[in-house]
Amino acid sequence: SMINDRLFPQPPTGLPQAKALPAVTYQRISGVRTYMYGGRAGQITSRFQFNVFGRTELESRTTTDALIAAFDGANFYNQLYGPVDRSDPESRAIFPSIDAVIAHHEAPPT
Questions:
Q1: Which string of b and e fits 57-85 if b means at least 16 CB within 10 Å?
Q2: C-alpha distances in angstroms, 78 versus 24, 74, 90, 95?
Q3: Beta pairing, strands 94-105 & 78-87
Q4: What is the pLDDT of residues 39-56, one digit of tens each?
Q5: For labeling, which of 27, 69, 83, 98 is most exposed (least CB within 10 Å)?
Q6: In Å, how far are 15, 36, 45, 92, 106 from 110, measured between CA atoms?
């Protein structure tokens, strides 16, 4: 895999400087719970944002393509939006961003 173990929760300030590249950060943006007549149905549809960082724009785009390919082979429901080019105001680097909508189950409330 191109990123190996370089998949990190999104820190408030983006990717920490000391991280090896390429790398991907993620954060859960939203979640919608499904309810039925008796309460929670146990399914959540969550939207995650993945930001891809590389040493060069080409490395970022190649890593983005690999991330999309990983979702292509997933055995769960998902929808992908993007990639959309975003920029870091400090470094002025361009990095791709993908939103993924993923349906998953939660444990019943206790």
A1: eeebbebbeebbeeeeeeeeeeeeebbee
A2: 18, 8, 33, 22
A3: antiparallel
A4: 777 788 899 999 998 888
A5: 69
A6: 37, 17, 21, 48, 12
> Which residue type is seen at 108?
P
> What is the Cα gyration radius of the chain?
16
22 pLDDT band, cuts 50/70/90, is confident
The backbone torsions φ and ψ at residue 61, rounded to the nearest 5 degrees and listed phi first, read -70, -40
Angstrom distance (rounded) from CA 52 to CA 83: 10
> Which is more confidently placed, 19 or 25?
25
- Would you say 28 and 12 are in contact if contact means Cβ atoms under 8 Å apart? no
Q: In terms of residues, how long is the chain?
A: 110
